[in-house]
Design brief:
alpha+beta, Cyclic Phosphodiesterase, Chain: A, 6-stranded antiparallel sheet, 4-stranded antiparallel sheet
Length: 167
């Protein structure tokens, strides 16, 4: 089982955002798959082990705005929107502590919108990304879910295996 811990999110006007990037050759994330990953677990854990270790985890029930756009890679290979809130960092830290996981990567709360294959006009692309700097693109309710990811020729299919409720 390919597993991760995450929260699903809603991006408003995703189709409009896609239309604003005609210079991209990319695979866009379908709305039903838009999510933030707190921790990718892969095939290394059994669901019951994760559930037991995180059963009583606490986090604030709140909604976080999805603000602006950013990219990973040079040349860019990921287009994302930012979900920035201290509570996301705290939840990530609590998860990694309870699961005894260390990473050499810094946790950057983001939601992947597109996996870029090629950018045909990089300067135009950067201008459009910059124009989104202060735009609210959607929102995400902080939640913690254990999610199974199944890779298919049509793309990833996600199934929520467990919702970690907080008080």
């Amino acid at each position: 089982m390919r597993l991760f811990l995450g929260s699903f999110a809603r991006v408003n006007n995703l189709e409009e955002t896609q239309r604003n990037f005609p210079m991209l050759r990319a695979r866009w994330t379908p709305q039903e798959n838009i999510h933030l990953t707190y921790l990718f677990l892969g095939d290394t854990y059994e669901p019951n082990t994760i559930i037991k270790k995180l059963q009583d985890i606490q986090y604030p029930k709140k909604t976080v705005p999805l603000l602006g756009l950013g990219t990973f890679g040079k040349p860019p290979h990921i287009l994302y929107t930012k979900a920035e809130d201290k509570a996301l960092h705290q939840l990530h830290k609590e998860i990694t502590t309870r699961l005894d996981v260390t990473s050499d990567k810094t946790f950057i709360p983001h939601i992947t919108l597109a996996r870029i294959k090629r950018v045909e006009n990089l300067s135009a692309f950067r201008k459009i990304v910059d124009s989104y700097k202060k735009k609210v693109l959607g929102e995400m309710e902080i939640a913690l879910q254990l999610i199974e990811s199944t890779l298919t020729p049509e793309g990833a299919k996600y199934e929520i295996l467990y919702n970690f409720e907080t008080v």
